[in-house]
Specification:
Blueprint: H1 13-26, E1 28-33, E2 37-41, E3 44-48, E4 53-57, H2 58-66, E5 70-73, H3 77-90, H4 103-111, H5 116-143, H6 148-151, H7 156-177
Antiparallel strand pairs: 1-4, 1-5, 2-3
């Protein structure tokens, strides 16, 4: 499951994250206007009345939010993270809970708006979740290729991680055993 940027030019994980992060920033998010406003942001006209709710691209919402023109109505990713940790902990030793494909991208974006102490606390919870899932993915990648069922449970970063680990594991086995398994 490699994404190609050109002929035989596989993207690395950082490129994949950038592409999906840009996609996330281009998605619409609901905002409530704090005051009447008519403004142009990089060739995008935004007009709203105080108290009105509209969907606008996330990156535009961030710009307007910085100057207190709008209040962004976004998912509370701290709640999502806590739920993900609970779900992961109740799964079996080698079973993964389902995370939406852009979970980490959305969480990292959310964390940018937090105070440093809150960001540090969320970062600690995120590390805990990543450690737990990474261990499970290592086990799964060593034992099988990425199935459709497993892919549905993984984020975009985790899918690439799984595929890379699986390929390294297979190469290692071939070095030791040759083509027999």
């Amino acid at each position: 499951m490699r994404i190609l940027t050109g002929i035989n030019d596989p993207m690395n994980i950082q490129d994949i994250k950038k592409v999906h992060t840009i996609g996330h920033d281009l998605e619409d998010v609901k905002v409530t206007f704090n005051r009447d406003i008519k403004i142009k942001v990089s060739d995008i006209d935004v007009e709203g009345k105080q108290g009105e709710m509209l969907n606008i691209p996330r990156w535009v919402a961030r710009v307007l939010e910085k100057d207190n023109h709008v209040l962004v109505q976004d998912t509370d990713m701290i709640v999502e993270l806590k739920q993900a940790i609970v779900k992961e902990n109740v799964q079996g030793e080698f079973e993964l809970a389902t995370l939406e494909p852009y979970f980490y991208i959305k969480l990292k974006s959310y964390m940018k708006g937090l105070e440093q102490t809150d960001s540090d606390k969320v970062g600690s919870m995120l590390k805990s979740l990543v450690r737990k899932r990474r261990g499970k993915i290592v086990h799964l990648a060593d034992s099988s290729k990425l199935t459709a069922n497993l892919a549905d449970k993984l984020t975009v970063e985790e899918r690439e991680y799984h595929n890379n680990l699986h390929n390294v594991s297979e190469d290692f086995t071939k070095q030791i055993l040759g083509d027999e398994k």
